[in-house]
Amino acid sequence: MTLLILGLVLFLGIHSTRIVASGFRDRVIAEKGEKFWKVTYTVVALAGLVLIVWGYARARYDAVIVYDPPVGMRHLALLLMLPVFPLFAASHNNGFIKAKLQHPMLIGTILWGVAHLVANGTLADVVLFGGVLVWAIVDLISSFSRGPVTLRGEPVLRKDISAVVAGLVIYAVLVLWLHEFLFGVSPIG
What we know:
By secondary structure, the protein is mainly α.
């Protein structure tokens, strides 16, 4: 569990600099340049991600059951996950989804966390998915307090269509094959 927690601290910590230390971030960029900040950010985030995956995998061997979700919760989780990847894809383009929601990736992350918490009940699940869920809610609130996102130009409908199609294709591949391959658990099995 220690590796999982350390990974979350690194990954969510570096992703929280705008929330808790935007002045620090700005100073580093001013002193050492944006490229230095981006490389540092990436290295810390990747190290955190590796520790999360490793720690979560290890924690599953000695799973501590916190709660036992009813069987139907898997179906709810699948439904909650349906918009997640389209929202992730929409966060990277200039469409109406991003214009309306402002932070579609954070909203998708919240749905991801809730979906996994309703379907999984081990301590590692609560720490991982609950930790990311709480972070995403705090980050979303912080983001809204900084004001609206400024889009480059007018929103374009075809960007939304491509985000939804790409997101649904990724969802289908993940549900039908990749989730079991990567994590050893089929969401539909």
